Automatic annotation (TrEMBL):
The name this protein goes by in its record: Cytochrome b5-like heme/steroid binding domain-containing protein
Top-rank taxon: Eukaryota
Pfam families to which the protein is assigned, alphabetical: Cyt-b5 (PF00173)
Family that this chain belongs to: Belongs to the cytochrome b5 family. MAPR subfamily.
Record InterPro entries: Cyt_B5-like_heme/steroid-bd, Cyt_B5-like_heme/steroid_sf, MAPR/NEUFC/NENF-like
Residues covered by the Cytochrome b5 heme-binding domain: 3-99
GO MF annotation list: steroid binding
Transmembrane segments: none
Source species of the chain: Helianthus annuus (Common sunflower)
Keywords for this protein: Lipid-binding, Steroid-binding
GO cellular component: endomembrane system; membrane
Amino acid sequence: MELTLDQLKQYDGTDPSKPIYISVKGRIFDVSTGKSFYGPGGSYALFAGKDATRALAKMSKNDEDVIGSLDGLTEKELGVLADWEKKFEAKYPIVGSLSA
């Protein structure tokens, strides 16, 4: 399955009949089993239905960082992102990818 960023927004947890998706480095993860974290009211709800790549790398919860850009990230931040990616891969199924 390929989704655009606009289509990904539909999977933000606000519609209980749809799964919750988060994109990391262009891959879309179904994080529905982590609903308490990623669903409405959860501590990471701002990532739901979005590309959280930069925010995860920077350990940021700022809206302006919830994007896919890797521009200007430090080696340390890229390492943090790699760790997050491994955690997501171990915990959540990959259901698709982001298209341009």
